[in-house]
Amino acid sequence: MHRFYIALVRNKDHVAFFFAIILSITLLLSNQNQKMIVVRGFALQVFNIIYSPVSWTKSILLVEEENMLLNEKLLLLTLQNEKMVAMESENVEFKKMLGFLKETPLEILPAKVINKGIHPNLLSVSLNVGKNEGVKVNQPALTANGVIGKVIEVGNHSCIVQLLSDLNYRLSVKILPSGATGILQWLHDNNCEVKEVPKNVNIEIGDPVVTSGFSDIYPGGLPVGKVIAIFDENWQSQKTIHLQINSDLDGLQYLFIITNSD
User: Fold this and answer.
1) What is the pTM of this model?
2) Alpha carbon of 253 to those of 89, 137, 166: distances in Å?
3) More confident residue, 76 or 115
4) What total number of domains does the chain contain?
């Protein structure tokens, strides 16, 4: 307390000046004289001009904060929307799989894709089923839309499927309703090629293509794709067919293994 009194005495001039200013402002604000009202209005205007940069800065900071909050909410909503779209896609896929399970006479095993491209020398996917679930080498793999490959390696609880898009993959197919047969080979972008088709066979754009049944691996009649182009040159003795496969190999998530095709 003693130090406070000493400091007050030393700075008495400043303290007196401060209280004088406070008293003057109080008297000015309480005085109802017309001139004082004008002075107070002018002082308020000056104060507003001086304070306007501070107010503008505060508003900018507030807008930035609100913008950050809105961006955060937008990100959360975007993530939720993507999750819902993915769930809808899986739901559609599950419905197709259930419908296929009910309709097909084949003994098939549902499987989930757990990895892609694990094999260095060919295009393949890994599945979560293996020997313990009845999977064997050379069993066909397909989706509800059609054939996509065959099993080439089997573990106890996993297997590797060589995809139809691998350049070394071949498949014996039949074009309906003409019955023309040929060997399917991958081209690009879900498009395949069937060469050496007889010229006298009538084939139309949109004709379905199925497995021929001439293979020990694939039973006949499994859907593969549809005809999208026919190349019939006069100087050639045979014609070439281009077809688009039914399944989307880039978006594989679930598929089936045919465990018994008898």
Assistant:
1) 0.60
2) 10, 21, 18
3) 115
4) 2
